[in-house]
Amino acid sequence: MNVSKNDEQVVARKAGGLNPAVIIPILFVIGVCIYLFVLGNPGNFKDAEKLGGGSVAFSSVDGKDIHPESFLGIIYKGGVIVPILITFMITVIVFSFERYFVLGKAAGKGNLDNFVVQVRSLLNQNKIDEALEECDRQQGSVGNVVKEGLTTYKALSHDTTLNKEQKMVALNKAIEEATTLEMPMLEKNMMILSTLGTVATLIALLGTVIGMIKAFFALGSGGGTPDAAALSTGISEALINTALGIGTSAIAIILYNYFTSKIDGLTYKIDEIAMSIQQSFAEFN
Question: 3-state SS string over 21-43?
């Protein structure tokens, strides 16, 4: 059954790449470990010998008495929102690398611009077999779509049961279906980058609000003499979360737009060759 075969092809392409349901929980665990054992390493704080080993989170020393000595220690003092923001940053990095390699593979092995020029030149000469050989060499999503279009072109050119208009409709449908099968693989996980570009800022704002609440609480609880240490801790927590959230969001948005432009470029190449295939078919058949 053709429908079943197409469904299997769609599933196969969607299955390509990383599975967010599996990867994101793993990245969260990594983010928490970085927060506890890298940022929270006693070496990042004053009087490290009193804090023991492992992480200051498991130290018997009161958290108010722990003072950072390095930038990593300062980030640790950002509070419980920090491991979430670290997870967001790692997630952006991991899925950006994944999209980079997937889209690179989708473009094929050779230079894509040269491939488009070569195929269009062969189509103008009605050299379909040579164009199919170029597709086999190029591979990738663009090569797959073009090969499907050329295979249909070749089959329809020998078909005597359909008139020219019906053949054009069938050719156009074959190219559209081939493009539809490739798009899920190209666009998979792009929503993660888009979502984190917004959510990271909101989570950072939550951390900022929590930090400011602590700061104002310290300001008001001391009566006439505010607790300067608690006040500065609350303000630094607010600013740390703000910086991490804005940085993560900025990187996610930049990379999302970059990969979106790459996908648009691949789609444009497919449309460019598809138009040439249709024009060639109309001219020579």
Answer: HHHHHHHHHHHHHHHHHHHCCHH
Q: What is the mean pLDDT of residues 222-243?
A: 77
Beta carbons of 46 and 67 less than 8 angstroms apart: yes
Residue 285 lies in domain: 86-285
Composition of the chain by helix, strand, coil, percent to 5: 80, 0, 15
Residue 56 lies in a domain: no
**Reported pTM:** 0.84
For the segment 211-227, the average pLDDT, to the nearest whole number, is 73
Number of domains in the chain: 1
How many residues are there in the chain? 285
Q: Is residue 178 part of a domain?
A: yes
Residue 48 lies in a domain: no
Spatial distance between the Cα atoms of 86 and 63, rounded to a whole number of angstroms: 21
Q: Do 213 and 50 contact (CB within 8 A), yes or no?
A: no
